Each structure stands twice: as C-alpha cells, then as structure tokens.
C-alpha cells in the first residue's frame, strides 16, 4: 500500500502511519515493524522521514532520546528531593516533639513544686492560728473555746 505513494510527495506518503519516506530516491516504503529502526540498506536515517516531513529520522530519534532522558532525570531528582525532604521533616518533627515533651514535663514538675510550696505555706498559716489538725487523728472534732 505504501509503494503506491512513491514518486508523489512526502506529505501524501506520511498520511499513512505505517509508511516511511526516503529522500534519497523519493520512495514511500512500508515501515519495517520487526526492527525498531529501519536498516541502513533500506534507507539511511538522515534521509528517512516518518511521522512528519520536516524532521529526519535521525534527529527524531535524538530528540525523543533527549526528551526521555530529561523526563527520567527530572523524575529521579524529584524523587530524591522528596525523599530527602520527607526524611528531614520527619527528623525535625521528632526533635520538636521531644522538645515539647521535655517542656511539658518541666511545667508539670514546676507545677508540683509550686503546689507543695503552697501546701507548706497553708500548713504554716493553719499552725499559726491553731487550725492544724493532729496527724494522729485527722477526724477529730473542731472545738471553739
């Protein structure tokens, strides 16, 4: 089917996706599907056109390889960056969590210390005014004199 477009134009030949245009002898040939790249005996890569007429097969392969390489490199960089940031943020979060736990424990200890100091002060005042109960019998009746 592709050979019917030989000696016509590149645009007409490449309307069919399975065709390959060769500029050396202006022929339209079936794309060799079994091999990924057309063999040089069929048509040299610099003179072969596939898909579009304005770019040769060699430049098309190089451009596709460059684009694929850029995509792979950018994906690799993104993955490494994300893993590094995630690991870094996890360690930062762990440090913040430890610091908050230490502060919480310090506040609890300070609160207990202030509570103990208040109790001592209140016991002192109760002792001064005779309101402190005996520790032997805490349920003794309070008597007014």
Automatic annotation (TrEMBL):
It comes from the Eukaryota. Residues 86-122 form a coiled coil. The keyword Membrane applies. Keywords: Coiled coil, Membrane, Transmembrane, Transmembrane helix. GO terms for biological process: protein import into nucleus. One of its GO terms (cellular component) is nucleus. The chain crosses the membrane at residues 59-84. This is PTTG protein. It comes from Toxostoma redivivum (California thrasher). The gene is Pttg1ip_0.
């Amino acid at each position: 089917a592709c050979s019917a477009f030989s000696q016509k134009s590149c645009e007409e030949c490449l309307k069919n996706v399975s065709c390959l245009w060769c500029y050396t002898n202006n022929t339209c040939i079936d794309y060799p599907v079994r091999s990924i790249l057309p063999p040089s005996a069929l048509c040299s890569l610099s003179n072969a056109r596939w898909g579009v007429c304005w770019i040769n097969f060699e430049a098309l392969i190089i451009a596709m390889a460059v684009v694929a390489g850029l995509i792979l490199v950018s994906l690799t960089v993104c993955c490494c960056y994300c893993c590094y940031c995630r690991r870094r943020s996890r360690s930062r979060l762990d440090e913040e969590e430890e610091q908050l736990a230490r502060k919480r424990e310090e506040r609890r200890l300070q609160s207990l210390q202030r509570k103990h100091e208040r109790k001592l002060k209140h016991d002192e005042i109760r002792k001064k005014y005779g309101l402190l109960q005996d520790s032997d019998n805490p349920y003794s009746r309070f008597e007014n004199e």
